[in-house]
Amino acid sequence: MTIYRRKLPHIEKDGGSYFITFHTRDDLTLNDEAKWLVLDHCLYDDGKRYELDSVVVMSTHVHLILTPLPDGLGYFRLAAIMKGIKGASSHSVNKLLKRRGSLWIDESFDHLIRSEEDFEAKSLYIATNAVETGARSPQQYPWYWRRGMRKPKRKQKIKDPWLSGE
Is residue 3 part of a domain? Predict the structure, then answer.
């Protein structure tokens, strides 16, 4: 187990699952296309660097549950995973919105999930966020995804070089 601190304390345990929340800087509100980009970036390394269980992208924040995968020397570090998601999504969203500067608050809140009950409570919390937008079920909120669901599809997709490798 590794414990470190920036502004918030962080606990990492090999094979552990995490509930993570990160917020936009200055409560910047993401439009629908920006939310699609963020969701795409959250899903991008699913199965490569982490197993993503569920995610919801809201107007000013994101909640997700993930489990880092082995990297050959141990496990992918949570800080590196979050740097990848937040850095790439920040670049893409800034380009879309024709803005500069930090999109996300530097530090994310992460919670090491300690039991099956804790895991289910955090999963329910993510699903409830989607429903609180007015959707009849979490699955009807376009920016909600949970393992077992098809990857969400939007009507019109913009080309994002960070995701297509171009």
Answer: no
Strands 2-5 and 18-23: unpaired
pLDDT per residue as tens digits for the range 28-82: 999 999 999 999 999 999 999 999 999 999 999 999 999 999 998 889 999 999 9
DSSP-derived 3-state class of residue 94: helix
Each residue's pLDDT tens digit, 73-127:
889 999 999 999 999 999 999 999 999 999 999 889 999 999 999 999 999 999 9
Maximum Cα–Cα distance across the chain: 44
Residue 42 structural domain: 8-153
Residue 51 · residue 67 · CB < 8 Å: yes
Sequential DSSP letters for 101-145: S--B-SPPEEEE--SHHHHHHHHHHHHHHHHTTT-SSGGGSTTEE
Instruction: Please calculate the CA angle 161-73-71 and round it to the nearest 5 degrees.
Output: 30
Q: Tell me the pTM.
A: 0.87
Q: How far apart are CA 110 and CA 82, in angstroms?
A: 10
Q: At what angle do helices 78-97 and 32-44 cross, to 10 degrees?
A: 150
Number of domains in the chain: 1
